[in-house]
């Protein structure tokens, strides 16, 4: 039985030496002192497990270098299981890392027996995922795709099955659903992952230039062709070319693309010899190509060449609770990116997010959350921060429903005004603390979601002064 490989990423040489010696009886150990070295070893060695220092910050590196590297590993090496290493003073970062895809964490000073147990458990998770034809049931991210609804999990599963093949893939979906992210996931999970990923927006390039952009040209082949230029299909050799808005390609270029898909040979404009290019083609569109075929604007034979496998990306309105999951993911990402101390959404903010139809899909949600993070004046985002009207609740069917709705709104407003302090919020609406706790349980509310970053701990916050 082969020995599993562990990558140790730590900027302390003593830690690297200790782990290399202490784990050698059970694992093959490779070590990296910085993120750049870790990236190289991830590509070359393909370790099953990674231990990663949260505080990885050699001179000149960002303070959150460890977390940034974790994001890369989760995106680009999803089967590699990451265990975070932390000092006692940075456990909060370790818990943040778990939410971002690490499988576990442990604190320094290192206890080898405990670490080996954690690594064995992480390896067990990896083997289950390798053996399963479906993504793990609890997975909320697959490469750069985020979600856990049945609709998006079907996409995860299809990508997982088609990526190792050489099949051409056609991705269908509305604007803003994440078609390019699906294409990138196919690339990262394929045998072409070490090559480039080259996206081309076919609808954004003038018809007269598109053929040259795709296939390249020889010097002097037309006016202004002052030098030879490789097309994007050649540039993407060994990798994947992503043809976005494939329905916008004019008929003459469709003919040449069809020929390329048949023999994988590129002939530049003005050239005399065709060159074979090893490149995978993934295409996408939000157009109805079958209607375009009926209208004679899209070739039927090209459609069937492109759609060996078709992936339908669901709109956000069909993804249920993924809307909230994505909103929280974007809030965490942009709070860190813009260095804002935004802790979450108010309940009315979450209701507004759930009620909005999201015609612009995930892209619209991402843009609204990013703008709100930048401009918000409080620690929790409200409907007005997102430029959304508060999600209107269903019209109460009974007098009791109306009372419950008004009661919940009153409690939320008190928590917002008092930054999650239960004692002050109870006093604000003239009830006792035990009664307020009962009301929180009744309506499923968590006072902690309303606390500001610099607020006291929950125990301190709830003590009467």
Automatic annotation (TrEMBL):
Q: Gene3D superfamilies attached here?
A: 1.10.8.60, 3.40.50.2300, Homeodomain-like, P-loop containing nucleotide triphosphate hydrolases
User: In what residue span(s) does the Sigma-54 factor interaction domain sit?
Assistant: 145-374
What are the protein's UniProt keywords? ATP-binding, DNA-binding, Nucleotide-binding, Phosphoprotein, Transcription, Transcription regulation
Q: Which residues carry this modification: 4-aspartylphosphate?
A: 53
Q: Which GO terms describe its biological process?
A: phosphorelay signal transduction system; regulation of DNA-templated transcription
Q: What does the record give under GO molecular function?
A: ATP binding; sequence-specific DNA binding
Domain named Response regulatory is located at: 5-123
Record keywords: Oxidoreductase included?
no
The record's annotation in NCBIfam families points to: PEP_resp_reg
Annotated protein name in UniProt: PEP-CTERM-box response regulator transcription factor
User: Which species does this protein come from?
Assistant: Eiseniibacteriota bacterium
Q: Provide the taxonomic classification.
A: Bacteria, Candidatus Eiseniibacteriota
- Name the gene that codes for it: prsR
